[in-house]
Structure to design on (287 residues):
């Protein structure tokens, strides 16, 4: 299992430094996040930054760590501009970019305050599928057209593909062992991994624990073609400050089938750029 770290708060310069410290202290990935103007108490006063601009800066000063965002809100992005942005970061990093993706949060004014943006969940899910299909066609290096409601274009071509031929895509998928919601799960199975969430009222409630991940990975093994290649299951959480307890948490996640643990601190009342830097310097646990 690999370990990632989210730069949830801080200026662009602070996040670039955080990413450098993550690489220096043994983390395997650095992730930023993708929001524009959040209508939520505690978050509405927080500045937001362009994730691709940040990741380009991080790519230029790191050599090893995987780069991404938790998660990219694809339905509010123009696919041709998105394709160019991710292609730039992918080549600048030497193929270290991954693409965790979701439908976006309805509290982002980039959805609710912009006429024509998809706001209903069903519409955002449909837009997500179309943008992903457009991206995949753009990676072929060949000229193509795309017929769609949200991502329809006539002739386009990106003559240079991603460094490794494609950028790994990890869609968010909702897990409920009692009644698996097939649309988001089936979407993830078509790609390279998933960021599982369970239903809940807060971000902490939505994080899948080892029990849910164990049930989910068993479901994946049953429903995914065994010849389809590697598949990542990305678990988010907060490791205990005590090294032994953190090691136990990580072992439980790995034993459940998670391939990534992503350290995520979101409470705006307690999390600061300085606390993130201190946490990153502790490094991930050794399994």
């Amino acid at each position: 299992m690999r370990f990632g770290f989210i730069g949830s708060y801080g200026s662009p310069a602070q996040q670039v430094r955080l990413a450098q410290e993550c690489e220096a202290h043994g983390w395997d990935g650095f992730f930023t996040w993708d929001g524009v103007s959040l209508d939520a108490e505690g978050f509405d006063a927080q500045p937001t930054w362009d994730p691709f601009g940040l990741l380009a800066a991080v790519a230029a000063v790191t050599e090893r760590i995987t780069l991404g965002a938790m998660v990219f809100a694809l339905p509010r992005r123009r696919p041709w501009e998105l394709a160019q942005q991710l292609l730039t970061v992918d080549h600048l990093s030497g193929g270290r970019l991954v693409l965790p993706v979701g439908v976006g949060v309805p509290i982002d004014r980039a959805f609710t305050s912009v006429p024509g943006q998809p706001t209903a969940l069903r519409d955002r899910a449909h837009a997500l599928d179309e943008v992903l299909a457009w991206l995949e066609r753009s990676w072929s290096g060949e000229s193509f057209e795309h017929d769609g409601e949200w991502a329809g274009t006539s002739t386009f071509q990106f003559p240079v593909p991603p460094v490794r031929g494609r950028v790994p895509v990890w869609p968010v998928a909702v897990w409920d062992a009692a009644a698996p919601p097939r649309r988001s799960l089936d979407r993830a199975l078509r790609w390279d991994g998933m960021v599982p969430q369970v239903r809940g009222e807060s971000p902490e409630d939505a994080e899948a624990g080892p029990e849910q991940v164990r049930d989910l990975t068993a479901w994946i093994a049953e429903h995914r073609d065994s010849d389809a290649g590697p598949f990542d299951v990305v678990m988010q959480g907060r490791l205990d400050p005590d090294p032994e307890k953190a090691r136990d948490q990580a072992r439980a996640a790995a034993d459940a089938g998670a391939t990534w643990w992503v350290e995520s601190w979101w409470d705006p009342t307690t999390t600061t750029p300085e606390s993130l830097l201190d946490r990153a310097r502790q490094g991930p646990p050794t399994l």
